[in-house]
């Protein structure tokens, strides 16, 4: 199978590409390099540098490479930024996805995997959160993914699209070759490791007065390779099913303080941390019930422990202390 990977130079997309190629498929990466890194693109993948707003280029790309399916990662992805720049998210994320879907349709490519988000569950009634939970986007970012999920619903009915929406909880960790390199960095684990590398003096804990066992937010960290593996399983499942939605996490929650303590053990660094005010938009607890994908697709994490996730991230950050640029 040949799979077009939008955002294949980014953190999750580049590791999904690695997984696709390891499984013996072909990959075409389409990425503007706005946030992604050319060095992160797998050497065996074809690469097209371009923006999803460029319809002519997208069209050429489909014409030239004739993919069988699309995995769509390219997106603005920060909840906090989306609260400050809603038009960027409600505009570009949505318009770019629509462009992509329309060009797919014109080329008779109708298998699609959406990189979706736990930010659809802003006010869960039940934790761990399963797929029956009502969808309440928590930000313009979450709303943009919600809208794309709705597009897919209608494109299935009207155009015969087959699709999977994978709602990620907290993607973390690294493979030997690829890891997390965002500028600016906003995610907990890479920030903690930057302190351990001596690149930051201390970590800010955003609030310790939440209704959780130690007062800090609880999240469900899933290893990036396990997340990538789920994409291929979901794509294969579209042979037999028209659409599916899966919540993807390990099913275990860890607090910010537990993450810092585990990183202290792994790195041997004191990792000073100070508590500051809550960050806007952070729910207290987000933990996935991933039993549906385990039962239906036989998905199982290879790296279920927080230790193995942080260790893999630490190994990568040690090898790439300044990310892909090496600067
Ligand atoms: N967090 C923190 N300090 C930081 C970055 C993150 O305390 O410098 C907390 C954040 O408030 C959240 C958790 O760590 O509760 C995970 O945040 P991250 O941005 O990694 O992922 P999110 O859950 O927002 O997708």
Describe the protein:
The radius of gyration is 19 Å and the shape is globular. The model has no long low-confidence stretch (mean pLDDT 96). The chain contains 10 helices and 14 strands. The chain has helices at residues 11-22, 55-65, 79-84, 86-106, 140-159, 188-196, 224-237, 256-267, 291-297, 306-319, and strands at residues 2-6, 26-31, 46-49, 69-72, 111-117, 162-168, 170-172, 203-206, 218-219, 221-223, 243-248, 254-255, 273-276, 285-286. The longest helix is centred in the N-terminal third of the chain and has 21 residues, at 86-106. The chain folds into 2 domains: 2-172 and 221-248, Rossmann fold; 188-220 and 251-325, Alpha-Beta Complex (UDP-galactose 4-epimerase, domain 1). Helices cover 39% and strands 18% of the residues. By secondary structure, it is an alpha/beta fold. α4 (86-106) runs parallel beside α5 (140-159) and α6 (188-196) packs across α10. The chain binds uridine-5'-diphosphate.
Q: Would you count the extended β strands for me? A: 14
Distance between the termini: 37 Å
Beta content comes to: 15-25%
Q: What structural category arises from helix and sheet content?
A: alpha/beta
Q: Name the overall outline.
A: globular
Low-confidence blocks of residues: none
Please tell me the overall pLDDT. 96
Query: How do the strands of the widest beta sheet line up side by side?
Result: 3-2-1-4-5-6-11
């Amino acid at each position: 199978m040949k799979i077009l990977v939008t955002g294949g130079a980014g953190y999750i997309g580049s590791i999904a590409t690695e997984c696709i190629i390891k499984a013996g498929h072909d990959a075409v990466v389409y990425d503007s390099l706005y946030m992604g890194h050319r060095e992160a693109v797998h050497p065996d993948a074809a690469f097209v540098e371009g923006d999803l707003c460029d319809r002519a280029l997208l069209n050429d790309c489909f014409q030239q490479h004739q993919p069988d399916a699309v995995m769509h990662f390219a997106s603005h992805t920060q909840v906090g930024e989306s609260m400050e720049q809603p038009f960027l998210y409600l505009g570009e994320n949505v318009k770019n996805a629509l462009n992509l879907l329309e060009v797919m349709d014109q080329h008779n490519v109708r298998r699609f995997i959406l990189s979706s988000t736990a930010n659809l569950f802003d006010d869960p009634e039940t934790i761990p959160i399963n797929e029956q939970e009502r969808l309440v986007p928590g930000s313009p970012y979450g709303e943009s993914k919600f809208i794309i999920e709705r597009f897919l619903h209608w494109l299935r009915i009207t155009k015969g699209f087959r699709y999977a929406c994978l709602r990620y909880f907290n993607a973390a960790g690294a493979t030997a070759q690829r890891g997390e390199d965002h500028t600016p960095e906003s995610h907990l684990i890479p920030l903690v490791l930057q302190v351990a590398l001596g690149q930051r003096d201390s970590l800010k804990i955003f609030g310790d007065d939440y209704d959780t066992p130690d007062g800090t937010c609880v999240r469900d960290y899933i290893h990036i390779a396990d997340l990538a593996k789920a994409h291929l399983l979901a794509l294969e499942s579209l042979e037999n099913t028209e659409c599916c939605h899966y919540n993807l996490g390990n099913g275990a929650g860890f607090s910010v303080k537990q993450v810092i303590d585990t990183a202290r053990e792994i790195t041997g660094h004191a990792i000073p941390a100070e508590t500051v005010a809550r960050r806007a938009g952070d729910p207290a607890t987000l933990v996935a019930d991933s039993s549906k994908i385990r039962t239906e697709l036989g998905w199982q994490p290879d790296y279920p422990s927080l230790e193995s996730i942080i260790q893999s991230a630490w190994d990568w950050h040690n090898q790439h202390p300044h990310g892909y640029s090496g600067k």
